[in-house]
Amino acid sequence: MTQLDALFSPFTLGPLQLANRIVMAPMTRQFSPGNIPNDLVVDYYKRRAEGGVGLIITEGTCIGHKAANGYENVPYFYGEKALAGWKKVVDAVHGAGGKIMPQLWHVGSVRKEGMEPDGAVPGFGPSGLVAPGKKKCHEMTKADIAEVVTAYADAAREAMNLGFDGVEIHGAHGYLIDQFFWAGMNERTDEYGGDLAARTRFAVEVIQAVRAATAPDFPIVFRFSQWKMQDYNARLANTPEELESFLMPLSDAGVDIFHCSTRRFWEVEFEGSTLNLAGWTRKITGKPAITVGSVGLNKPFVDEEKKGFSGGEPASIDNLLTMLNNKEFDLVAVGRALIANPDWPLRLKQNKTIEAYDLEQLMKLV
Ligand code: FNR
């Protein structure tokens, strides 16, 4: 038994049966003209399933709400044409022996005017802030909140009906759900604002609605992060106790797996323990956790360092395997290494050369 065996051992949670512990991290690629995933997108995901990925989480895909989208050429998760495109993706991935979940996304106040589907619709946020202290977009009413919650539920129902293996709710990186979590963006004085536990209320309603719209055992993954696109140093929880007050309402609402987004998996989350964010999340909630962040990158990325995605010398895979073997987390998400190597799992297993990631690779959908 080598350390690597832990990564290639199966994982089962209710109806979810994964061949190994490797998860493709959600990555926006903007290759869906007209917001419809086409055959190039089908092949892109199929290649990762063929390459040995246990579970694919798709790029963020917009729920059916007028302000959900913030970018060009990202796929929608509503409307006949987009859903027909996704059906082809699911079937191709399953045909290759893989599993797949869509990442359900609402960008909130990150949306800029001019974006599809109606350029006149502004960004929506809990307090109308586009960044802490900057007031510019639409402050959500309770009717808006109810509408968005319903849109998440509708998307999850569609995902189940299309044959997806679960859904991931995007609650990370400073998009809508995270804007409710984040004190700097949520100044509400009603029940959707307040302390960190109170600021989970919107997410709790989303999770409960997704659960109610799907089967009792339909897997729900919830992705969250301390860091925000608008501020890499922002944090939700500064102590394990704060993290617990944040996680338990989400866990109780029906999350099955937590996807703990960090930029470097080896970073210690709180002083006094070597656990990372996924390690703490698993310990606090008792639920399976996914770790992520610079896994399999074999050189530092100076250009991306400026954007905050990565930095320093990447830790070796041995370090990751030791943490996995210690059962600090259950699954390992891989992003950029899977852009550079669609068959990263097979290459690792067979001890083949792993190509380095390069920003240029984002220009094409390979
Ligand atoms: C991302 N990431 C990301 N995260 C997310 O939750 N939804 C998304 O749509 C995207 N989009 C996206 C696009 C691109 C091009 C990159 C590089 C990243 C973050 C991603 O899921 C992952 O957390 C980070 O890339 C860190 O993992 P790696 O790349 O270091 O393995």
From TrEMBL:
The organism encoding this protein is: Simiduia curdlanivorans
Name this protein carries in UniProt: NADH:flavin oxidoreductase
Quote the CDD domains the UniProt record gives.
OYE_like_5_FMN
On the tree of life, the source organism's domain of life is Bacteria
Segments forming domain NADH:flavin oxidoreductase/NADH oxidase N-terminal = 7-294
Q: What is the lineage of its organism?
A: Bacteria, Pseudomonadati, Pseudomonadota, Gammaproteobacteria, Cellvibrionales
